Amino acid sequence: MSILYVLIPLALLLLGFAVWAFFWAVGSGQFDDLDTPAVRVVMDDDSKPDQDEQS
Amino acid sequence: MASETCFHCALPVPADCHLSVDIEDEPRPVCCPGCKAVAELIRDTGMSRYYELRDLPDPGVGRPPEEAAEWVVFDSADMLDAFTERDGDLREATIYVGGMYCSACSWLIETTLGKQPGIASAEVNPITHRLRLRFPDQESSFSNHLATLASLGYQPQPLTPESATRPEVAEQRTALKRLLVASLGMMQVMMFAVGLYAMDFQGIDADMQHFLRLVSFFVTTPVVFYAARPFFTSAWRGVVGRRPGMDLPVSIAVGSAYVASIYATFTRGEAVWFDSVTMFVFFLTLGRFLEMRARHRSIDRSAALSSLLPNTATRLDGESHTMVPVSQLQAGDKVLIRAGEPVPADGVLETGVTSIDEALLTGEARPQAKVIGDALSAGSINLDGMIEMTVTNTGSDTTLGTISRLSERARYARPEFVTVADKIASYIVVALLFVAALVATSWYFIDPDRVFVITLSVLVVTCPCALALATPAAFAAAGSRLSQLRLLVTNGNAIETLARATLAMFDKTGTLTLGMPSIAAVFVTDNAFSEKDCRLVAAALEHASTHPLARAFALQEPLPEVKSPEVVVGQGVRGIIDDREWRIGNAEFVGGGIAADDSATTHVFLGVDGNAVAWFELEDAIRPDARQTLASLRNLGLATALVSGDNHVAVDNVARVLDIDDRHHECTPEDKLAIIEAAQQRGERVVMIGDGINDAPVLAGADTSIAPAHGALLAQTSADVIMLGDSLTPLTTAIQMSRKTMRIVRQNLAWAIVYNALALPLAATGFVPPWLAAIGMSASSLVVVLNALRLNRFE
User: Fold this and answer.
1) Fewer beta carbons within 10 Å, N or C terminal of chain B?
2) Does the predicted interface ipTM exceed a cut of 0.85?
3) B184, B104: one domain
4) Residue of B nearest to A49 (CA)
């Protein structure tokens, strides 16, 4: 059971890192717009002229 | 060549224009060299798919400006500092993109700019029409990017960082962070709590128990001090303002449970309640977050209003002309406004004679003639001459700014209904605190050991969150759904009053009718010409004019060629067709000679070589969906009425077509108000649907007022609901939706009352441990919020 004395602080450390990462993501505006990215995936098909450039 | 519409901007292609662009191996007609350039640019950068992806454009949208604006001014150091923010080596600018109409536009902008050198990232939000642009801090790059946007056919307008960071965004960011801290904290503490409970059964290792409690304390602390801070501050504000809100019992419960748990931890006491604390805070924060999201989902209208203003103005400093950003204009500056340009600020006309289109501000479709000394309003459009103006008011002090501020205020105002609910809630809170004190005293005599646990449970379980959330959550959800259905609610009371409406009263012009003239009849007085000839000549001549009446003459047919067309301000248009001088306009200008009857319809005369040959009667056509909308309103149990300032012939015509019996003609605004008040005396609940500046007091007098968005902006500010889009059908939706909302509010209130009535006795008699109380209270709040969110699926 004494392994918990190591594992729990370790888990808290990871938790702290997760919170920091999330705060950074919110601060950089990644959560400001939750509607557009869903559409963007659909729009970002490779278009014909792009394929021409590659070939 | 058959009549066509421009492939790029959907305006009709002039007969004498033979431009075309090869896109996807087919020649596509375009209407002007500007559209040709834009279409070619789009094709050459490999973006032809834009044309497949976009919805059908509104005519004229995406058309490049006739004269490219001078973007270079934005490269000066002051301008860069004013409009961008430095972020390391990058600069970040927020740009309002005028002329966007669908998500294909955002695709086009993102991909085109993304391929440009010198741009780190470009992200477009198609809902708010904002572009976030990051680029390396180099000279003259900002103006290039703006020019690229303009060359795509959009009207870019850089926003200052202050105007770009909207309060909602900041609020949402903080709320998200709080929610995350609360949820992660709750998960961790629950995990430790499971360990603690398990150990209770398996025999306790005292050191391990102490360790787990310490860790729980460690994790709970940020949850209490960061995530739950809004509850404490709001509770304190309630106490100071002598109006305790529902946050007071919440704060007492969270605070006391936290303090008691710390005490138990360090004195190695019986039990800790860290799990209850974090769970309570998490569910409360979640409820608030959902409510906030629903509240924020409305359209950013103030940005749309400010897009009426130009970016730059030509300032006159003595003899020299300087392009300056509009934000730098000051009262007393002299500015030059060319024909077709919007007026950048409020001011007084100094030199020149012109006519001004104030349709967006006043709803008056006819251009207003302006002479020296007349006042000009920001956002109106200079139609004819080149004028000089002295600035009197700028920015938010202008008429336009006042309007947008008013509508902004209305948007944030809390409905009366909610305020009343808040007042009641504060009495309930006081009663609850009293009950909790009573319970605590009773248990002190029954079993002193259980006093704290039971009082805590009572406080948590009876938290009137569900009661307080019942109405605002439903209203917020309804508001957001209505705005998706193209109805903008500016006054929260509107939903309640709409649900009870019994009489729908309509204005005629621009509401039941299109508000746009069309030709009702042609009277040819010279037998040498056919009606068709006259229509064609009129269309060809009016093609040169920007006068609102000119749109009535537009034909989708090849038109005769007009040589040297000339617009005479306030008179009409003249031009040479087949070597004869034709004129269209008022009787005097054309050559007179025809006596028209004196009815209220508008007459336009057509003449050749000084002799009138025909006159046109222009009329306002009834909206195609008016009849059906009125019928469905009657099905919903509403009576319909028509009040209009027009003469009885016009009113009777419209009323007959639409089956309206209750009609009033030649009404002044005072008459209209009196009619509404008389109806209200009879016990009717009146919805007034109208636009135009004259209707502002009338709209304010009705129980609910609805204005179409194309109407006068001033009317909208006193309107409770604004109909976006060019259709009356949303009216029926609004009534149905508001009735459904009130039904959900009643369900929510009933649920909250029943829950509290059941939970309080159970908790007071000691059957509910604190953790169960937290779950019960949270579940009841979530039920209320989720029930309200059902409105989002309303069709």
Assistant:
1) C
2) no
3) no
4) B46
